[in-house]
Amino acid sequence: MFGFGYHSFLNDHIKKNKCKRLLEIGVYDGENAKNMIEAAKESFPPKEIEYYGFDYFEDERLYWKVYKKLEETGCRFKLFQGDSKVTLPQHVEELPIMDLIFIDGGKSYETAKSDWENCRKLMGKHTVVFVHNYEFPGVKRMVDEIPREEYIVEIIHPSDDYATARIRKKL
Ligand SMILES: C[S@@+](CC[C@H](N)C(=O)[O-])C[C@H]1O[C@@H](n2cnc3c(N)ncnc32)[C@H](O)[C@@H]1O
């Protein structure tokens, strides 16, 4: 499905920059998680790769399907079940600085803003945050509000995907 499960811009970034700590908001069926982990496996043994996923996971069967899919990759992973507006602030302090963060959960301004405000606490000098679906009004408003004196914000338009914001800290 267009824009789901596989994002070449993420996999290219992971391979090129040797990313091994990955966080995704909006896991859905775990297909993109698996593909990102496979990309990281080009540079690291599975046990050195960490994946953190946040989703409602309202369907228990889907949760276990994703769990099994991630277990099969051999990487270390944690899944957080519930509204990311609640679960992310609850857990952010215990999470490490990430190499790559993919924000692809709720598309309302309120959710996108909350996800970004929490994720930015997990950014180091090298971290890149990708925010999917810049075309959604709530997502666009959140991205447009990010202070440009603190962050470098670029909008990328992959031919095989939706518009995405790519954000890193200004050094
Ligand atoms: C577009 S799908 C994610 C697709 C996946 N990242 C991929 O690339 O294939 C959006 C997911 O976000 C989840 N989601 C939406 N709002 C959320 C929220 N407030 N908290 C947690 N998960 C949320 C939905 O349950 C859904 O699985």
Care to describe what's here?
With 171 residues, the protein is α/β, with parallel strands linked by helices. The chain has one domain (8-169): Rossmann fold. It has helices at residues 8-17, 31-40, 60-73, 84-91, 109-119, 137-145; strands at 21-25, 50-55, 76-81, 98-103, 123-132, 151-156, 164-169. Strands 3-2-1-4-5-7-6 form a seven-stranded mixed sheet, sandwiched between helices. The mean pLDDT is 97. S-adenosylmethionine is lined by residues 4-5, 24, 26, 28, 31-32, 54-56, 83-85, 104-106, 111.
Core attributes:
binds S-adenosylmethionine; alpha/beta; 171 residues; 7 strands
Q: Strand order of the main beta sheet, please?
A: 3-2-1-4-5-7-6
Strand count:
7
Strand content: 25-35%
Domain module count: 1
CATH topology heading: Rossmann fold
Provide the helix percentage.
25-40%
- Sheet/helix structural class: alpha/beta
Task: Give the second-level CATH assignment, the architecture.
Answer: 3-Layer(aba) Sandwich
Low-confidence stretches: none
Q: SSE order in H/E notation? A: HEHEHEHEHEHEE
Q: Give the overall silhouette.
A: globular
Helix count?
6
The largest β sheet comes out as:
7 strands, mixed
Average of the residue pLDDT scores: 97
